[in-house]
Structures are given as structure tokens and as C-alpha cells.
Amino acid sequence: MVKCKCINDKKKPSKIPANKWVKEGEEYTIIFTVVVLPQKKLAVQLAEIDFDESCAPFEYFMADRFAFTKDELDKLAKLIKDCNDTDFSMDELMNQTKINDRAADTN
Questions:
Q1: pLDDT given for residue 82 in this prediction
Q2: 86: phi > 0 → left, psi -120 to 50 → alpha, else beta; which?
Q3: Fewest CB atoms less than 10 Å from the CB: which of 3, 94, 103, 105?
């Protein structure tokens, strides 16, 4: 599992209730990653938020909504590899999830 901090809670789809949406500045735990199509972007599933049928077609959060410390980014790279059998460049996917000092500001 990978710890992260939300840095972008903007543009919540109207179909998703507020209690199932991330909040900027809050910490979350990534439990699964996937490359979503047609965007070819990294997306994540969080332990703290379960998108149910009422949220369809939304199933994941885009990874660029979150910031990571260096250690957590290393864990994310391993989780991506474990979760995805993909033809996309690992470098390209990791570029979507830059280290952000804001993730280290916990408390």
C-alpha cells in the first residue's frame, strides 16, 4: 500500500457524492493502480473511498491528483509493476506522478 496526499480535489463529477470524493490536504492509501483508456494515464484505487455502482462509470482517481514522498513514490513504482501488465513506458507513467514536497507536509 502506498501513502499519498491529495493535492487536487477540483472538478468533482456531479454523479459522485461528496462523501466519495477526495479532499485536498488529506492523506489516502493507494491499493491498486491501472492505466485508464483512452487517456493512457495512471489511475488509482484508494482504500478509504469505494466507488460503487452509483458512481459509474467512474471507478478510479487520476494519479496526478496526489503527491508522494520519495519513499512512497518508490513503493508506487513497485505497485504499478505488480498491478499492470502494460505496454506503456514506465518512465511515462512515473512522469505523471512527480515527487511533491507538499506530500511531506503532514501535520
A1: 82
A2: beta
A3: 105
Q: What are phi and psi of 93, to 5 degrees?
A: -65, -40
Nearest to 2 by CA among 89, 88, 82: 82
**pLDDT tens, residue by residue, 20-54:** 999 999 999 999 999 888 888 999 999 999 999 88
Query: Residue ranges per domain, the chain?
Result: 2-104
Closest CA to 2 of 84, 81, 75: 75
Residues forming a β-bridge with 29: 3
Instruction: Please state, for a pLDDT cut of 90, what percent of the chain lies above it.
Output: 61
Cis-peptide, bond into residue 38, ω within 30° of zero: yes
User: Cell 488509482, residue?
Assistant: 44
Residue-wise burial string across 31-48, b where 16 or more C-beta atoms lie within 10 A, e elsewhere: ebbbbeeeeebbbbbbee
